[in-house]
Design goal:
Elements: H1 3-12, H2 15-23, H3 27-43, H4 52-73
Length: about 70
């Protein structure tokens, strides 16, 4: 078993992850919520204070969290 698989298995046993999975049974549901939050944040007045690098960083973290969900939900 790879280190990545062991880590995913450990995370699946985590109470917070169990709560997340109960609320969102599929990874694609979590990823959809992450994108909705990003869209809302980018459209808010607060987004005006972010430069293009900061906005790109926000998009990148959402992408990474989505990939993490795919890994954990396997």
């Amino acid at each position: 078993m790879s280190a990545r698989d062991r880590t995913a298995k450990e995370l699946r046993g985590n109470e917070a992850f169990r709560d997340l999975k109960e609320a969102y049974p599929k990874a694609k549901q979590v990823k959809a919520e992450l994108w909705e939050l990003l869209i809302a944040a980018m459209g808010s007045d607060h987004a005006d204070m972010w430069d293009k690098k900061e906005r790109a960083n926000k998009m990148f973290v959402v992408d990474l969290l989505g990939a993490l969900m795919d890994t954990i939900y396997k």
